[in-house]
Amino acid sequence: MHPRLNLFSAEPETMKAMMALSDAVAKSGLEPSLLELVKIRASQINGCANCLHMHARDARKHGESEERIYLLDAWREAPCYTERERAALAWTETLTLIAQTRAPDADYAILDAEFSKEDQVKLTLAINTINAWNRFAVGFRMIPDVALAKAAA
């Protein structure tokens, strides 16, 4: 696989806007570890190797365990996630797969039980942002840093 283009050199102003959106999510006040779990889960669904590599690494930096990262794809069956994390992961799946799910009331009720209205908006922005990044990365074939390092070696 080869990258199709460099997003940042092809359209720097657009990518500055994406970076600003990512910065707003990071500064939203939501727990960094929760945000990384959301980013990993959306990236798993979207098949984004670049984002999976980046956010698994970032999750580890925020103290996330290997076990919880590995079990994330099966979070519903894994007892190691809090109710708040489960609500965020359910909402992530619902919005990432919105064409299929249509964001049902039951999923919103789970979210509403764990997140304030303000935090619901912040979480939804985080989910939308990682989905946008996934589409840039998959569409333009961004390669994870680890693959670049191995290819250069």
Task: Summarize this structure as a short list of keywords or feature phrases.
single chain; 153 residues; mainly alpha
Describe the structure.
The protein has about 150 residues and is mainly α. The protein has ten helices and no strands. It is globular, with a radius of gyration of 16 Å. The model has no long low-confidence stretch (mean pLDDT about 95).
What kind of sheet is the major sheet? none
Order of helices and strands: HHHHHHHHHH
What percentage of the residues does DSSP assign to strands (E)? under 5%
Helix content: over 70%
Structural class: mainly alpha
State the distance separating the first and last CA atoms: 17 Å
Rg (CA only): 16 Å
Individual helix count: 10
How is the topology of this model organized?
Elements: H1 7-10, H2 12-26, H3 32-46, H4 49-61, H5 66-71, H6 83-96, H7 98-101, H8 105-114, H9 117-139, H10 145-152
Helix pairs in contact: 2-9, 3-4, 3-6, 3-9, 6-8, 6-9
